[in-house]
Amino acid sequence: MAKVQLVPYDAQWPEKFRVLKEQLEEKLAPMKVCIEHIGSTSVPNMMAKPIIDVIVGVEKEEELQDAIDPIRELGYTYVQQYETILPNRRYFVRFKEEGLPDIIRNGEHDFSQDADIHHEAHLHVVVKGSNLWERHLQFRDILRSSEDSLEAYASVKRKLALREWESTNEYAKAKTSVITGILSR
User: Fold this and answer.
1) Which domain of life is it from (predicted)?
2) Of 56, 77, 85, 94, which is least surrounded by CB within 10 A?
3) Nearest-5° angle of CA 73, CA 68, CA 5?
4) Taking the alpha carbons of 140, 20, 53, 150 in that order, is the dihedral positive or negative?
5) Calpha distance 54→76 (Å, rounded)
6) In angstroms, rounded to a whole number, what is the distance separating the alpha carbons of residues 19 and 159?
């Protein structure tokens, strides 16, 4: 069972993102990438799991694979098993501890059972302009500009955080309807 840990907004989150962005820009310099801060840590005054969410937009789908090794060299773990769920995304976790695997393949680790407490950052690599790219940025921008949307989302997160979850993926799925509702306004 997983318990979701939400903390009040931390004014250091944008700076933590800036540092991660600079590292990624340098490592991915040969590629034309766009790097954005997404998720609740990117929204002022939003409580969140204290994990920096980053989305990296690449120009072409072929570049999804090209980004894997340079990102792993920065200390991120590539979660290959999630490719079956979202084949147009490459997903990485940066753990707070060192010495963890740099690739998690299918069947090696039930990643969904992780409570996220050891995660420093989550990184999504997608094609710029794709539905995944646009949806993440649109949702972030709505929460930044609409107090009503921010409060509606925060209220749902508070309620859901009180529960125990089979996995953190289940917590994420439980937020889908409110996210879809906010995006359709």
Assistant:
1) Bacteria
2) 85
3) 80
4) negative
5) 12
6) 32
103, 77 contact by CB (below 8 A): yes
How far from chain centre, in Å, is Cα 10? Answer: 17
Determine contact, residues 77/105, Cβ cutoff 8 Å: no
pLDDT digits (tens, 9 = 90+) for 160-179: 999 998 878 899 999 999 99
Residues with Cβ < 8 Å from 88, sequence gap 6 or more?
A: 61, 64, 126, 127, 130, 132
Mean pLDDT, range 14-34, rounded to an integer:
97
CATH code, 150 = 3.30.460.10
* Cα 101 to Cα 98: distance, rounded to the nearest angstrom: 9
Dihedral pair phi/psi, residue 108, rounded to 5°? -80, -30
pTM across the whole model: 0.91
Residue span of the structural domain in which 57 resides: 2-183
Q: Which residues contact 119 (CB under 8 A, 6 or more apart)?
A: 49, 51, 93, 94, 95, 96
